[in-house]
TrEMBL record:
GO terms for cellular component: CST complex. One of its GO terms (molecular function) is telomerase inhibitor activity. Pfam families: Ten1_2. Coiled coil: none annotated. InterPro entries: NA-bd_OB-fold, Ten1_animal_plant. This is Uncharacterized protein. One of its GO terms (biological process) is negative regulation of telomere maintenance via telomerase. It comes from the Eukaryota.
Length: 145
């Protein structure tokens, strides 16, 4: 039964997605969070933005699977979804969302600090612990060491 479930989404900052680039992110299941800055209901595309590490990062989100999407420009949303299997450029990086939730009011600094602590804990348990969560978790753990 567990084989029929979709993969969990690795929690990633938008900056981490751009650092890894389209070749490493192709086909990955991710969980991302950002402020909704644009939404096109006809094209079913949203643009989320996050200011991290003294720069601003953007990511497009395909909302076809989560329509009707109750978009509110300026609100913070979290998306879980998949990156396309074939991407060649940063412009091709679009998350195909299967879960969306509004997380207005979240302390994003505390949230990402907790994510960093979890990554360090999983990395301290050895490669087997990170591997049990999937190859993307092992790669995420290696970013923090």
């Amino acid at each position: 039964m567990a084989g029929n479930l979709p993969p969990h989404g690795d929690i990633l900052r938008l900056s981490e997605i751009h650092e890894r680039g389209p070749l490493l992110m192709a086909g990955k299941s991710v969980r991302v969070m950002g402020k909704l800055t644009r939404y096109d209901a006809i094209e079913q595309l949203a643009l989320i933005t996050s200011s991290e590490r003294n720069s601003t990062h953007h990511l497009q989100v395909n909302t076809r699977l989560v329509e009707p999407f109750q978009s509110r420009i300026g609100s913070t949303f979290q998306f879980i979804g998949e990156m396309p299997s074939e991407m060649e450029r940063d412009a091709d990086m679009v998350v195909h969302a299967r879960v969306v939730r509004c997380v207005d009011g979240i302390d994003s600094t505390m949230y990402y600090n907790a994510c960093d602590v979890q990554r360090k804990f999983l990395a301290s348990r050895g490669p087997a612990a990170a591997a049990s969560r999937g190859p993307a978790a092992a790669a995420s753990a290696s970013l923090t060491t």
